[in-house]
Amino acid sequence: HVIMGPNGAGKSTLANVILNNPQYTKTSGSVEFEGENINNLSTDQIAKKGIFMSFQLPEEIPGISTMNFLKYAKNKVTEKPVKIFEFKDTVKKYSEELSMNPKLIERNLNVGFSGGEKKKNEILQMLVLNPKLAILDETDSGLDVDAIRTVSKGIQMYHNEENSVMIITHNTRILENLKVDYVHILVNGKIVKTGDASLAKEIEENGYEKYKK
């Protein structure tokens, strides 16, 4: 599923509300995941259910390496001890597929990383944690063409018949190499149009003006 819309339409708000970000208050409606109402679950409980979110602006966390962060997150989500050597091999394999500098894995999480490196690191987290639903909030913003291809490759590696991806984006570059099932246009917090991949191409050519009305 692809969510598109003009600035301020509520795309990132939607993602944050699904994950129950405490900065937002739900006033009505419900969020259901696999038949369960998750409105009142905490963010970590929602993550354990299998929902992952890639941030538009990934946080820097001094004092914890990327590898230790991944190991801790995997342990918390699965509630099983991580087999360290097998886990390191998995992280190495995915980081090589994403053309990441191996030194970044041992550095503090996102500290001093470029914008592209931070976004690749988010995709690495998605691959390692292997959630049921991955929400990617403008993962392509600020990336050059090569980095967008790499991120698209990571999404292709992750997506299968057992999981789902929700991509929030302003443009269609990240969609070019992906199989898109649905495109939703969000305006003023409401989905005003749903279509297939051709709808994204229409937006690329003509913008959102007619949908704003």
How would you sum up this structure, described in words?
This protein has 213 residues and is an alpha/beta fold. 40% of the residues lie in helices and 18% in strands. It is built from eight helices and ten strands. The chain has helices at 11-18, 43-49, 66-78, 84-97, 115-129, 145-158, 197-206, 209-212; strands at residues 2-4, 32-33, 36-37, 51-54, 61-65, 108-109, 133-137, 164-168, 183-187, 190-195. The strands form three sheets. Strands 4-7-8-1-9-10 form a six-stranded mixed β-sheet, sandwiched between helices. Strands 2-3 form a two-stranded antiparallel ribbon. Helix 3 packs parallel to helix 5 (115-129), helix 4 (84-97) crosses helix 5 and helix 5 (115-129) packs parallel to helix 6. The mean pLDDT is 92.
> Which blocks of ≥5 consecutive residues have pLDDT under 50?
none
Content of β-strand: 15-25%
> Helix/strand-derived class?
alpha/beta
Q: Can you count the helices?
A: 8
Instruction: Assign an overall shape.
Output: globular
What does the radius of gyration come to?
17 Å
**Sheet with the most strands: spatial strand order:** 4-7-8-1-9-10
- Biggest β-sheet description: 6 strands, mixed
End-to-end distance: 23 Å
Name the average pLDDT: 92
Order of helices and strands: EHEEHEEHHEHEHEEEHH
Strand tally, please? 10
Helix percentage: 25-40%
